[in-house]
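Bug #77: duplicate submission created two jobs. Keeping one. Sequence:
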Amino acid sequence: MSTITEVTKQKRLRKEEELKQDLIHSSKTIQMQIILKSSEINYDQPIGQIIRQAREMQGLTCKELSKLSNISKDQIDNIESGRTKQPQLNTIRRLFQALKLDREKLISKGKEINYDLPFGQLIKQAREIQGITCRELSELIDASENQIHNIESGRTKQPRLDTIRRLIQALKLDREKVISKGNEINYDLPLGQIIKQAREMQALTLKELSEISEISISQIYSIESSTTKRPNSYTIIKLTQALNLELDLVLYVLNTKC
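Kept job's structure:
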């Protein structure tokens, strides 16, 4: 009889302990929700302070964050204290995933794309600012990691037009700034080459330019290949407007070189 009583007592104690833990957990959850509602992450702070603020707002210790992010406690301490000023990209990514931070605000905090950089360096900078690995970028644009490495290192100086377009789209870059970066239209060229140069500088396909200008693909191709040396005025105006070219200079070229 005493054995049955003891077992019953132990079950009751376990049940009480479970209820107690549930209450503590619920209390912490409510407390965290109140804190999160009344507070917002200040992304204008140094990155270490952002991590610490987010961790403390969520009621996490460094040890708990270490387990969640698979980053050592010492690393987290060094980042939060500012001793590590530029954590590795993968470290930042794991920390903001664990803390559910806004990826774009955190990674790009205080950083802006420098469109004056060579194309490869520009792509690398944009990729790293957004916390994207070469592998992830290669999957986004359906290219190999080697292609990304070659572009970023400058070994590939003139990537294919389609590759450029996909990189711009994947990295959400300003198309006009990227394509026209350091490039100016050479109005000393024949008309067809000017049109082609302007189109490629803006990463436009023949089809896209056709849709924008309402000039057929075959007409544009004939102009670019110099099969059509003197397009009519309507065609010139439409293409000039679509490509943001200087109409006066285009007409000058048409009258002097065609």
